[in-house]
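Quick one: structure tokens for this chain, please?
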Amino acid sequence: MARPPRLRAQTQGTQLDRVYPWGALWCLLPREDWPFVDELRQRYIGARKMIGLLPVGTRPGDDSPRLSFFWSLPCSDFVAWEQRGIAAWRDEVAQMWPEAHARLATVQVHGALARASYRDAVVSRWHRGRFVLAGDAAHAMSPQLGQGVNMALLDALAMRDALRAGADLDAALQRYQRERQAHVAIYHRWSRWLTPLFQSERDLWAQGRDVLLRPMGRVPGGRGHMLRVLSGTQHGWFGKLALAPEFVEALSQPVVRVADDKTEAVA
């Protein structure tokens, strides 16, 4: 599978493609009796340390619900972390968040955790001939806003609508690019601004984060604005991305799981 930087190079329109200095270690854990089945839970020490647990559902062929576990770490410290020893790291997790540590029974070696790095990428041309960029290949950003999947789904929706609107392929792809660039631009800015508040060594910035972000949800209009940002439907500074009613209805439907023997489907 080609990596996004190589895919971006195919359109010959890469304006920016840089790696963020901070990344994460992550893995999937059994959810078991974790009580927060529909909530992202995180623990921070300033912006230097962070643990997160996010319910992510099940995998194909595996009915066991899972949690995505992630631990913030500078990319330059990946090697030092591995040399340090897994027991010392597990002790650090236990001190910071005992309930998260209790989920790590299956994590006994460094190889149980994957290393993740993030990129900030801006592309001026999303297509070349019949080759089209979408998702992270078109607009990679840090995961602080949690918008990777949302943006990719909206890319697919916009591409579908553009292709249905006319027979000229190049015109349709130009329309797709215009619509999506107008939407993702503000998310790029927010991602760049917010990332140092959550992953950096800037303790003063982290204090400001805690002081300012906590009351924002209680300010008139603040909660709605924050929810639009986190759902991927904020457009520009004050606008809202309108979603077709049938698309919203489809999102509310239960997921259909195909049985392993492919003879039945279970909702």
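The longest strand covers residues 14-30.
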